[in-house]
Amino acid sequence: MKNICFYFQLHQPLRLKRYRFFDIGQDHYYFDDFQVEDRIRNTVEQAYLPANRTISEMIRSSNGKFKCAFSISGVVLEQLEQYAPEVIDSFKELAATGCVEFLAQPYAHSLSSVFDESEFKMQVEMHTAKIENLFGKKPTAFANAELIYSDEIGEVIYKMGYKTVLIEEAKHVMGWKSSNFVYTHSYQPKLKLLVRNVKLSEDIFLRFSSPSWSDFPLTAEKFIGWIAASPAEEEIFNIWMGYETFGQTQRFETGIFDFLKAIPYHSMENQIGFVTPTEAAKKSEPAAALQIPYPISWWGHEKDLSPWSGNDLQNEALSKLYSIGERVRLCQDKPLLHDWLEIQSADHFRYMSHKDAFGSNYETAYDAFMNYMNVLADFMERVDTQYPTTIDNEELNELLKTINNQAEEIEALEEKLKRRRKATLND
What distance in Å separates the CA atoms of residue 326 and residue 20, rounded to the nearest whole number? Predict the structure, then answer.
């Protein structure tokens, strides 16, 4: 039986304010709260809430047969908790249906999987705990930020306990192979790989409302017809896109919500089902192993990391940022740790791209670079104030252990003193 697996990505970075050289050492707050709130509220009202209502209706009207998955960054979850808690509530309602799966990812939607393995592991654990705390479901499947994946990254993900990963359909990896099968990691056969179907995904989020497209207008009947007409042996169709597709990228007036609502009806007519990623990996036998020695991503024709690390500006910023990772992780200063996560979002480096600075509000890549580096310079000063670079990380770690041990000893002695005082009073 053919099955469709829908994945919806939710991520919005904290936008940096204009931060000048003379702010370094003077102003330790980096974010444009007005712009952040304005953007998240618009996205919530135009996309997230109406899309959640539509998904809920699809689940009810199909008697629970419609299923899908959500990949929601920790960064956007924090924004929703602060500015739009009603969206969190609506996701809790979806979670209660048992028809949605929440995927794990690095908390900050960062590039840490490529540049700092320890940071990557920490962020994944942090994100998993956040999802479980909010929605009562511990993620068992994984979708990395920007669908970044390689054999090396896959091995790290597998060793963290995940058995299913969504990856991109990169032609130089897939060759003649179809995306509509389950695959495995090249040398960890228990790690299942689900491959995004690029055409079907982009037909919705990219081409849906384009009158110049040869298949315009796209109807649910036509879309499901393409899947039904595919070779009989093709079992799983992984369709991944940003959740803002519904209401923002494709506006309400294009009919995108009516299209979405009609999907279950036409699927059931054609004996096509819906599965979550974990279900998809369990239902189908792997067709083959995929060898992916170098990182791939979902963006562009090259499907590589060039949107985030394709020029000298980006590489300089990334090198500086991750050079202090080990030192920051020794820190217990909550505001500093929070800022550390926020300045890692992949978007900040995308804005420095000469090729495609998608979503940028800077005039040039150089403007984005200079603004970010000013922020990073101040952040590094804050780290150095607490943990001077004159002390190496190993020595610093030993000092912190000593301080923590002393704190525990003091706490134990205080508790002992309380018991003695209580015993004296009773006597």
Answer: 27
First-residue to last-residue Cα distance in the chain: 78
Q: How many CB atoms lie within 10 A of CB 396?
A: 19
Report pTM: 0.90
Structure tokens at 360: 């940028």
Give the pair of three-digit tokens for residue 330. Answer: 């020794």
Residues in the chain: 427
Q: Encode pLDDT of 238-283 as tens digits.
A: 999 999 999 999 999 999 999 999 999 999 999 999 999 999 999 8
A 10 A CB-CB count for 103 gives 27
Q: What pLDDT score was predicted for residue 415?
A: 73
Contact between 353 and 115 (Cβ < 8 Å)? no
273-310: per-residue pLDDT in tens?
Answer: 999 999 999 988 999 999 999 999 999 889 999 999 99
For 271, left (φ over 0), alpha (ψ -120 to 50), or beta?
left
| Cα distance between residue 13 and residue 22, in whole Å | 24
Find how far residue 168's CA is from the centre of its chain: 14
From the options 3.30.70.20, 3.20.110.20, 3.30.450.20, 3.40.50.720, give the CATH code of 3-22+29-290: 3.20.110.20
Residue found by looking up tokens 């992780």 in the block: 329
Structure tokens at 261: 């609502």
Is residue 191 a contact partner of residue 185, using CB atoms and an 8 Å limit?
A: yes
Reduce the secondary structure of 349-372 to three states and give it as a string.
Answer: HHCCCCCCCCCCCCCCHHHHHHHH
Alpha-carbon span 2 to 145, nearest angstrom: 28
- CB-side neighbour CA atoms (13 Å) of 99: 21
* Closest by Cα among 4, 22, 86 to 49: 86
- The CA distance from 235 to 142, in Å, is 20
Query: Which class for 421: exposed (0-12), middle (13-18), buried (19 or more C-beta within 10 A)?
Result: exposed
Neighbours of 192 (CB within 10 A): 23
DSSP 3-state assignment of 28?
coil
Only one residue has tokens 């979806």, namely 94
Only one residue has tokens 């959640």, namely 52
Look-up: residue for tokens 């979902």?
298
Q: Hey, where are the domains in the chain?
A: 3-22+29-290, 308-386
Kind of pairing between the strands at 3-10 and 68-72: parallel
- In terms of Cβ atoms closer than 10 Å to its own Cβ (0-12, 13-18, 19+), residue 400 is middle
For residue 206, what are its two tokens? 């990219």
